[in-house]
Amino acid sequence: MKHPRLRDGHKLKTNELYPLNEIPDSLIEKIAGYFTYLLYVGRKDISGEDWGDAFAQAIEGVHLDSPIGIADVVKGKMAWSMKTVKNPKVLTAKKVRLISGRCSPDYSYGINDPHKDIQQTGRAVIGIWNERINLALDNYNPVRTMVLVRSLDCSHFCLFEKETHRYASNNYVWEVNANGNLIGRDIVNGSAKFTWQPHGSQFTIHEDIPANAVRFIIKRPPIMSKDAILESLHFDSSWVEIIRN
Questions:
Q1: 136 dihedral zone (left: phi>0; alpha: psi -120 to 50; beta)
Q2: Which residues pair with 199 in a beta bridge?
Q3: Cα gap 81→51, rounded to integer Å
Q4: Burial (0-12, 13-18, 19+ Cβ within 10 Å), 35
Q5: Cα 24–208–104 angle (5° rounding)?
Q6: If the chain, 245 residues long, is cut into consecutive pieces of 10 residues, what is the mean pLDDT of each piece?
Q7: For position 14, what pLDDT does the model report?
Q8: Predicted local confidence at residue 11, as pLDDT
Q9: Do residues 20 and 144 lie in contact, with contact meaning Cβ atoms separated by under 8 Å?
Q10: What sign has the CA pseudo-torsion 9, 13, 16, 17?
Q11: Distance between CA 82 and CA 72 in Å, rounded?
């Protein structure tokens, strides 16, 4: 559905390259091409940095490659948080757990004993996440999370996109698991939505893979040998300057 025409519509800025999670085939083909290149030169895995580079090049955007903040790849006023996880059953997977940064209730709220009142700690963790979203939205809109699920051999992939949004803390109740981590559960259906680890303050969001996620397979290319790469570059001793004391 198109955006409605409004009397103050001149204030409405639409920056979307495409509708949410309606990822064009042409974009997927560019991403697959980048992955094929990585495999061809001998890479055994695809890192988070690789994923950011692949997507940024595909949309002709900028990979900020910064450990701070939500926005990893940007184009104009649009931003994406890039996430990739491994899964041995990519084509049938239903859920993923996304590491989503560090939230320290001690640093942000002065909560030095997170287990003393786990509901308070859980609210603080969500509050920190929400503030990060606020900061991202000060500079970009829309802000999305682009998730790549990859197989162990990097031949099968699942790709989906979700709006990166705030959470209402009163929609979740917190408990402690056997490892001492805090688990945030939806108060309506009891499903686990968050995991927060006191040691390291790592915050993880549990996401359902949507039914319209794109799944694709790439043909693994033959790996180009080191000698073949050096030969194609016409490498010789003139490329090396040796300095000795």
A1: alpha
A2: none
A3: 11
A4: buried
A5: 110
A6: 45 72 97 96 94 98 84 95 96 95 93 96 96 94 97 97 96 97 97 96 97 95 90 95 94
A7: 52
A8: 41
A9: yes
A10: positive
A11: 6
- pLDDT at position 82: 97
Per-residue tokens: 198: 């006191």
Cβ(115)–Cβ(176) below 8 Å: yes
Q: What is the CA radius of gyration of the chain?
A: 22
Is residue 209 within 8 Å of 187, Cβ to Cβ?
no
- Give backbone dihedrals phi and psi of 229, rounded to 5 degrees, phi first: -65, -45
For the chain, give percent helix, strand, coil, nearest 5: 30, 25, 45
Identify the pLDDT of residue 9.
42
Both tokens of 129, joined, read: 């996440």
- Number of Cα atoms under 13 Å in the Cβ half of residue 134: 7
Peptide bond preceding 142 in cis form (omega within 30 of 0): yes
Do 21 and 160 contact (CB within 8 A), yes or no? yes
pLDDT score recorded for residue 10: 40
Q: Can you spell out the DSSP letters for 103-145?
A: --HHHHH----TTTSHHHHHHHHHHHHHHHHHHHHHH-SSEEE
Residue 223 confidence (pLDDT): 87
- Global confidence as pTM: 0.87
